[in-house]
Amino acid sequence: MLIKYLILGVVQGFTEFLPVSSSGHLVILQKYLALDEDGCLVGVMLHLGTLLAVCFFFFNDIRKIIYDFFTRRNTKIVIYIAVVTLITGLCGILGRDFFKGLFASPQKVCLMLIVTGIVLLVTKKFINGKRNLSELNIKDALWLGITQSLAVIPGISRSGITISTLLFRDVNKESAFRFSFLAAIPVILGAFILESSELGRVPGPVIVYLLAGTLLAFLSGLLALKILFRVIQKARFSYFGYYCLAIGLIFLFIL
């Protein structure tokens, strides 16, 4: 049982940040690993590990944003992150039962992986955007909030869909990478808090397994962030689209 959660932790850490949909892989893996626990609960616990990873990786960015906000040097980024969070939170709460039901349908997950793959392939024509982080505007935040809401659907990659959205809006690749993950922090934290009340019903040994998986999600998440940053710098972000298409088609056929 422990090995299963360790595998889930490693997969979560890599797929949460690489644009290949962590929730989609989690649904498929849980089917083959025969885990009985609630898919959303397992996902949220592993998300805690990746939340710690993103906070660690972007620590200097977070510190600068907080300092600039309280010294009133630049309050726009905080406002934009708040807008993205509000839109994503409202959509997530209103559609919670609907989205939760999708975790039980591996076939639909495969279809959404194919959609993610197509979106990523399209980014190849938009990888050389001009605008940087300081040039973001409220429209960027609104669009990001909407598309990040879609990422609640298993098989739709959050990092893939949000980075793609910013690339489509002429944001340069490094700024798209940074803002996508900075805007995700409140959402991942909110999801964990929302589902944490269900931890009380999980047996003690399973909690230990979940924590072990969370630790591996943190470590593998850090590695995945470093890999993704280098891939984006080399303008090879669209390559992940081939992987999503392949995985989606293969498992759609198998399932």
Structural descriptors:
mainly alpha, single chain, 255 residues
Task: Summarize the structure in short.
It is built from 13 helices and no strands. With about 260 residues, the protein is mainly α. The longest helix is centred in the last third of the chain and has 30 residues.
Report how far apart the termini are: 24 Å
How many beta strands in the DSSP annotation? Answer: 0
Question: How many structural domains are formed by the residues?
Answer: 1
Task: Give the rounded overall mean pLDDT.
Answer: 84
Query: How many strands, which pairing sense, and closed or not: the largest β-sheet?
Result: none
User: How many whole angstroms does the radius of gyration measure?
Assistant: 17 Å
- Sequence of secondary-structure elements: HHHHHHHHHHHHH
- Morphology call: globular
> Which bin fits the share of residues in helices?
over 70%
Percent of residues in beta strands: under 5%
Description:
The chain is mostly helical. The chain has one domain. It has 13 helices and no strands. Helix 7 packs antiparallel against helix 13 and helix 8 packs antiparallel against helix 9. The protein is globular. The two termini are 24 Å apart.
